[in-house]
Every structure is written in structure tokens, then in C-alpha cells.
């Protein structure tokens, strides 16, 4: 891109800038409503609310919309969105108070969307999530293993009491499933190796050297290939829209300020706070027990050593003082580094994400 | 029998684990299906229709009704085949010198019309076939019948005349049309069966696809550079960032709820803290101090770790109590389990990264290890859950009673033996119980 000329801002330009920014946003987000809906949302029009609920649901769900999620009723989606926003730390209570049936609160939903956009690179993240995979990919990190897939099943049957043997049976079943999975995985790797060797020299990109399964598949099945091409082109369109959004977004934030001002100020927190016990076996509950157990183990070990140390305290020379201070400093540094390793995101240091497999000779 | 709440939680966790395993299996089976199909003989995209549907390229001549090729045509084609085979041999010699086979690329526009195994003839093909010595026919519209240049390919006329090679370089449109009609009637055993093994190296990706893919890569690179902020317009970038921060602050101050919440990210961080502390503790406990300095250092470290563990616990409990004090009734049950962003959200923009491997063995080992990690992760989580549920029950029940023994045995099996081995519990009569004779 060449150097941009500094022009005097033309009022007509300014008037166009906001609609274009919103249009770009609408083109880059998946399942986004039309730009007109955003406008209506500012004035809290009821017809804008359902579309925004659906957009928020699509944006917040961890997996791209598959059949099961997309078919949830608006009410269920609205509830899920509220819960998801809260777990991310959404500060406004007005969202909670919106009725579940989804016809109100368009302005609040617009604020929620803007909040998500401000916190992080949302369009880019969504694009990466739905990126068309052209290669055979394998993740090089274990982040995926830690995340649990999808939403908890909505229809959790209220089971009666079970025998412990049923639990044992379920664990056995699980073990068997893993074993099958591993066998299947070995076969898949062998097949991949073959496909990669057989198509050596075919790729236009020299660094890749051979075709991947999606690419070979598109050659075998031209119809599927056409669909892949369509998806790729749609993604290209969304990428261009994202670039345009990034160029124009300033005017959007200025507009959002006015939207926020248009809202009535929130009430002070209610004085009556009902106390609801947190289920003990939630993830946080498990973690509490773990930390408590860990602390206990550490306490025992440390106390034992301290006692042993103090028993043998007499036999150290005069260089003891200086050495002690040095040791204390060293240990403090050590532990600070340890603490940093979980406080800060060390994500950049290690490789992450799916990598394209490529067989070299 | 286990109490109801406990049963429900245990079964729910195990069902979750089973479901996630099933999901992996489903995806794996899909990949296997695709890969196996690619390695077999490639069939035509659809089963041959009773009537051929000529593509739009075939305009002039109406397809004649199915009739066997005239002997004259067959002879011509036979001659042509021979000529082509000779050309193949010549070319093979050339290509061995490193020239590489020119394979016609698939035109994506015609991909939709190419329904049958035989290709619709086109003028370029015809002209190409007229000069077989110089070049292989270009513009063949089927990827798996890439060229006629392969030696040993029986193109035509295996004697009985019923077969007609696909796209056998027909120099007439009618002959080509007859191709289309005859091939579906021919035996399903197409002579030029395409297998990846034999002819995979000849494939080429279609032009449209290559263009789209390179545009895709270019756009991602642009987006990535915009993220890292080395775009030309730095002033606008900072103005935008300021506007965003201000907006967030305004949202926060106008809010009715406190900001710090027990979010998924926070829990993840604390979990990581716990496991790192535990690892470190293990290191310290297994290390053998050689002199008093090391001993002292180890002591200090343990005490420091204990303090850190206490801090984490305190923070976790603080955040949890904040959750409880909120009007929880208004919020729906528990936060949904969102996927943690990979790498802690370090780089949300996709960028092409390669993972090179040199042998199938390597790939298999890698995949097996990854799967094992995932399995062990799940197992660790399940064991934590089992411990949390079963151990309190054991403490509550009356020891040495029948149900207690059964539960003990099951708990031992699940927690200590990974569900694989069972203890046998025998009742041993103490000697003094036996009444003396």
C-alpha cells in the first residue's frame, strides 16, 4: 500500500465511515446480522434482539456451529450466552436481567458484542477457528487435551443410585474405547505416510513437496473439490472484510461510546444477597481439594526437614551467615520464576496449534 | 449402592469421558474412510448413468445413439494408440532426464460437467492428439486420466472391440462422443484404473484452487502483520487501542458487578500452578542433598512452595466466595466449559507452520504419544473425581462391615490398579475364635 494522502476529512466521508465499518464487521463475523440490525440495536428495537442473541451464541461457542448446537431454541441459546459471558467476566448486570425469550435488550447485546471485540482479536480468532484446512494437520501442543469438548449434554437424566460395579464397568468400557482408538490411529498414520509418498513432487509449493489428503481428495472428487474451493473463497472474503474492519474500526468505537451513554446507569448492587452453596465437585471444588492436599504434603515435608536441620544446627562454620543469605536470595528468585511460569502466558515460547504434516525424504 | 448425588456425578463424568472418546473415534473413522478410498482404485465420481450426459462443450454433433464403432474408426484409433505409445517411450526417456511429465491441469469450470469417466472432447485435445510425437494432449479434463503417456497402458481395443479407451485421442468429435457412450457400457473394469500408488506423482492441483490458496495465504499474512502492529498507520492503531481501553473501562465503572470473577482462565491458571508446584515438590523430595548447603536450600524451597500453595488456595477460595455472594439465582447453572485458547491465546492469527517427519514410524510414534497424553489426562481427572467421591464414603461407612469391604475393594481397584486388577478379600478367622476341642 502506498503512502496515504492526508486529506481534510470530508463530512461525506465521515458519514460513510461508520456504515462501512459496521458493514465490514458484519461481513467478517460468522452468521452476523445485517448492518441495519446494529443500527436498530442502538435504539433498542426489539426486532434486533434475536439476531444478536444468535450472533453472540455463535461467537462464544467453543466449536463451530454443528447441528446440535445450532438447533437449540433461542431461549436456550440466550441462557447459554448469559452464562458464557458471565464466566468471562462480563461486568454488567443488565444482561442477566434480560428475559430469556430473547425479544428485548438489543442495546445491551450490542454492548456485550463490543465488549468482546474490545477485549481481544475476536474476528481473527473466529477465522482461525473456522479456517479451511488444506493440509493434514496435527497439533503440537496439548492444549486441546485439556479442554473438554462441547457443551455438557443438555438432557442429563436424573439417575437413581448406581452400584459401584456399574462404575467399574464404565471405566472398563472407556479403556476399551481408548485401545480401539489407538489402533485406528496407527492405521491412519500408515495410510497418511503412503499418500504422502505417492504424491511426491506434485505440489506447486516446493516446500511442501507432496499433496495432503484434502488436496488429493479434491482431485479425486471434483464435486467435493468445488465445495472446498467455495469454502476457501468465502474465507478469503471474510479475511478481506477483517482487514477492512481493522482499518476502519476507530469510528465504530466512537459510536459505541454514544451507545453506552444512551444506556441508563446501572443500579447499585442489591443489598440482599442470597447465599447459594457451590457444588463441591465442580472443577473449582476439585482444585481446592488438590491444593489443600498439596499444601498438607508440603507442610509435612518442610516441617520434617526443618526439625532435622535445627537438630543439626550446631555444626556450621562462620561462613554460615553469608551463605545463608545467598541461599535465601537464590531460592526466592527460583520461586519467583516458577510463579511467573503460570501467571503469565508462556504461550509464545513453545510452539502451539495445528501444524501441517509434511514428509521429507 | 452409592448415594444418589454421588452416583449421578460419577456417572456423568464417566459418560462425558466416554462421549469425548466416541467423538474422537468418529473423527478418526471419517479420516480413515477418506484415506482408504484414496488408496484404492479411483472410481468415476458417479456411477455411470444409463445415458451419458454430454457436457456443454459438446455442442455441434448430437450424440448419436449407441452403436459399436466402425471398424475404420477402430483401426484409426489403434494406429493412434500405437503412435502415442511410441511417444510415451520417447517422453519417458526425456522425463527420466528430469524434465517431468507435463500433466494437464483440471479446469475447475469443467469439473462440474465432467461426470463420466471419459472426458468430453475439446478442440485442444483433438489438436493435441494430432501431434502425438511432440506433446501429450493438453486440456484433458480428468485428473486421474492425466496423460496417455504412460507406458504399458492399454488404451484401446483389447481385441473384442467392445472396449474403447477413454479419451483415446479421438480426432473426431463423434468418436469422442462414442467414447462417452461406450465406456459406460463397457465392463466396469476400466483399463486405465487410476491408483495413487502408480500414478500419484502425476497429479496436479487445479489452477483456480491454487490461486485461491495462495490468495488465502497472502491475506492471512497481511492480517498477521496487522496484528503485530507493523502496519504503516501507527497513529491510527494507537488511537484505536486507546479507544478500546477507554470503552472497557467505561463498561466496568458503569457496571453493577465486580470485575474479578472466577473465570475459566483463572481456574486454568491455578490448575497449572498446582501441577507446577507438585512437580517441583517431587523434584525436591527425590533429590539427594550432598552437603548442608544443598540441604538448607532444599528446605527453603519446600517452605517457599508451601507458601505459594497457600497463596493459590487463598486466592481460589476468595474468588469462589465472591461467586457465591452474587445473586446466583439469576445466573444459570455453572459456566459452560469453553475451550481454552491454544497457547493461552498468544497468537490468534493462523500462520502456516510445518511439521516435518521422515518416516511412517515416526508419525505413528508421535500420534500414539499424543493420544496417550490425552488418555492419561483424562484418567488423572477421573481419578481425582473418584477420589473426591469414594473416599468420603469410605470414611463414613462402618469399617469392616460387608458393604464397606465391597466398596473398599472397588475403590482400590479403581484408584490403585487403574480398574484392571481386583483384590480378593478373605475373611480370616482369628485363631482364638476357634473353640478349643
UniProtKB/TrEMBL annotation, chain A:
Pfam families: TEDC1 (PF14970). Residues 89-261 form the Tubulin epsilon and delta complex protein domain. Residues 349-361 have a biased composition (Basic residues). Residues 341-361 are annotated as: Disordered. This is Tubulin epsilon and delta complex protein 1 domain-containing protein.
TrEMBL record, chain B:
It comes from the Eukaryota. Transmembrane segments: none annotated. Residues 43-72, 100-148 are annotated as: Disordered. Residues 105-124 have a biased composition (Low complexity). InterPro entries: DUF4693 (IPR031518). Pfam families: DUF4693 (PF15764). PANTHER family: TUBULIN EPSILON AND DELTA COMPLEX PROTEIN 2. This is Tubulin epsilon and delta complex protein 2.
Amino acid at each position: 500500500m502506498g503512502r496515504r494522502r492526508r486529506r481534510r476529512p470530508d463530512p461525506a466521508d465521515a458519514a460513510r465511515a461508520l456504515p462501512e465499518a459496521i458493514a465490514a464487521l458484519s461481513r467478517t463475523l460468522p452468521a452476523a446480522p445485517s448492518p441495519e440490525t446494529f443500527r436498530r440495536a442502538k435504539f433498542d428495537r426489539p426486532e434486533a434482539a434475536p439476531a444478536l442473541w444468535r450472533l453472540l451464541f455463535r461467537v462464544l461457542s467453543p466449536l463451530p456451529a454443528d447441528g446440535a448446537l445450532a438447533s437449540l431454541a433461542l431461549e436456550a441459546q440466550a441462557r447459554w450466552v448469559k452464562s458464557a459471558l458471565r464466566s468471562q467476566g462480563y461486568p454488567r448486570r443488565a444482561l442477566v436481567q434480560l428475559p430469556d425469550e430473547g425479544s428485548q435488550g438489543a442495546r445491551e447485546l450490542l454492548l456485550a458484542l463490543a465488549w468482546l471485540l474490545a477485549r481481544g482479536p475476536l474476528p481473527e480468532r473466529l477465522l482461525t477457528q473456522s479456517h479451511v484446512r488444506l493440509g493434514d494437520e496435527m497439533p503440537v501442543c496439548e492444549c486441546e487435551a485439556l479442554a473438554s469438548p462441547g457443551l455438557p449434554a443438555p438432557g442429563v437424566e436424573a439417575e437413581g443410585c448406581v452400584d459401584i460395579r456399574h462404575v467399574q464397568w464404565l471405566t472398563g468400557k472407556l479403556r476399551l474405547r481408548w485401545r480401539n482408538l489407538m489402533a485406528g490411529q496407527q492405521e491412519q498414520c500408515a495410510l497418511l505416510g503412503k499418500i504422502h509418498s505417492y504424491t511426491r513432487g506434485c505440489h506447486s509449493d516446493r516446500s511442501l513437496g507432496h499433496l495432503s489428503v484434502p488436496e488429493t481428495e479434491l482431485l479425486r472428487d471434483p464435486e467435493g473439490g468445488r465445495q472446498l474451493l467455495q469454502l476457501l473463497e468465502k474465507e478469503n472474503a471474510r479475511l478481506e472484510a477483517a482487514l477492512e474492519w481493522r482499518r476502519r474500526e476507530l469510528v465504530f468505537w466512537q459510536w459505541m461510546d454514544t451507545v453506552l451513554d444512551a444506556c441508563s446507569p446501572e443500579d447499585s448492587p442489591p443489598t440482599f444477597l442470597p447465599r447459594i452453596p457451590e457444588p463441591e465437585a465442580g472443577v473449582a471444588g476439585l482444585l481446592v481439594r488438590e491444593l489443600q492436599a498439596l499444601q498438607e504434603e508440603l507442610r509435612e515435608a518442610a516441617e520434617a526437614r526443618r526439625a532435622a536441620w535445627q537438630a543439626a544446627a550446631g555444626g556450621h562454620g562462620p561462613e554460615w551467615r553469608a551463605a545463608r543469605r545467598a541461599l535465601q536470595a537464590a531460592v526466592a528468585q527460583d520461586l519467583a520464576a516458577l510463579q511467573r511460569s503460570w501467571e503469565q502466558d508462556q504461550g509464545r515460547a513453545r510452539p502451539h496449534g495445528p501444524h501441517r504434516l509434511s514428509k521429507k525424504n | 449402592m452409592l448415594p444418589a448425588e454421588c452416583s449421578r456425578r460419577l456417572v456423568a463424568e464417566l459418560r462425558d469421558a466416554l462421549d469425548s472418546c466416541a467423538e474422537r473415534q468418529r473423527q478418526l473413522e471419517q479420516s480413515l474412510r477418506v484415506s482408504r478410498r484414496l488408496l484404492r482404485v479411483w472410481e468415476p465420481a458417479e456411477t455411470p448413468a444409463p445415458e451419458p450426459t454430454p457436457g456443454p462443450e459438446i455442442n455441434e454433433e448430437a450424440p448419436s445413439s449407441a452403436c459399436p464403432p466402425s471398424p475404420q474408426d477402430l483401426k484409426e484409433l489403434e494406429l493412434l494408440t500405437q503412435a502415442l505409445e511410441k511417444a510415451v517411450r520417447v517422453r519417458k526417456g526425456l522425463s527420466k532426464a528430469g524434465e517431468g511429465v507435463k500433466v494437464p491441469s483440471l479446469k475447475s469450470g469443467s469439473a462440474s460437467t465432467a461426470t463420466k469417466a471419459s472426458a468430453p472432447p475439446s478442440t485442444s485435445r483433438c489438436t493435441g492428439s494430432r501431434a502425438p510425437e511432440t506433446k501429450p494432449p493438453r486440456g484433458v479434463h480428468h485428473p486421474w486420466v492425466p496423460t496417455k503417456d504412460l507406458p504399458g497402458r492399454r488404451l484401446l481395443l483389447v481385441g473384442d472391440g467392445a472396449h474403447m479407451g477413454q479419451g483415446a485421442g479421438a480426432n473426431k468429435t463423434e468418436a469422442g462422443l462414442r467414447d462417452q457412450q461406450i465406456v459406460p457400457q463397457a465392463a466396469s473394469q476400466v483399463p486405465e484404473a487410476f491408483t495413487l500408488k502408480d500414478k500419484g506423482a502425476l497429479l496436479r492441483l487445479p489452477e483456480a484452487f491454487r490461486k485461491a490458496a495462495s490468495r488465502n495465504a497472502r491475506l492471512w499474512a497481511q492480517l498477521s502483520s496487522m496484528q503485530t502492529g507493523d502496519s504503516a498507520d501507527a497513529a491510527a492503531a494507537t488511537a484505536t487501542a486507546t479507544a478500546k481501553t477507554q470503552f472497557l473501562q467505561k463498561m466496568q465503572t458503569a457496571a453493577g458487578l465486580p470485575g474479578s470473577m472466577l473465570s475459566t482462565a483463572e481456574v486454568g491458571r491455578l490448575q497449572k500452578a498446582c501441577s507446577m508446584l507438585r512437580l517441583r515438590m517431587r523434584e525436591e523430595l527425590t533429590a539427594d542433598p550432598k552437603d548442608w548447603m544443598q540441604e538448607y536450600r532444599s528446605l527453603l524451597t519446600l517452605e517457599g512452595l508451601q507458601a505459594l500453595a497457600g497463596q493459590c488456595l487463598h486466592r481460589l477460595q476468595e474468588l469462589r466466595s465472591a461467586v457465591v455472594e452474587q445473586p446466583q439465582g439469576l445466573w444459570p447453572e455453572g459456566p459452560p466449559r469453553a475451550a481454552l485458547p491454544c497457547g493461552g491465546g498468544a497468537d490468534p492469527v493462523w500462520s502456516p507452520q510445518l511439521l516435518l517427519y521422515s518416516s511412517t514410524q515416526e508419525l505413528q510414534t508421535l500420534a500414539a504419544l499424543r493420544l496417550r497424553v490425552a488418555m492419561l489426562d483424562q484418567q488423572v481427572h477421573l481419578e481425582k473425581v473418584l477420589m473426591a467421591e469414594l473416599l468420603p464414603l469410605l470414611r463414613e461407612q462402618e469399617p469392616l462391615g460387608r458393604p464397606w469391604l465391597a466398596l473398599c475393594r472397588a475403590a482400590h481397584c479403581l484408584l490403585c490398579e487403574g480398574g484392571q486388577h481386583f483384590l480378593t478379600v478373605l475373611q480370616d478367622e482369628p485363631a482364638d475364635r476357634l473353640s478349643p476341642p
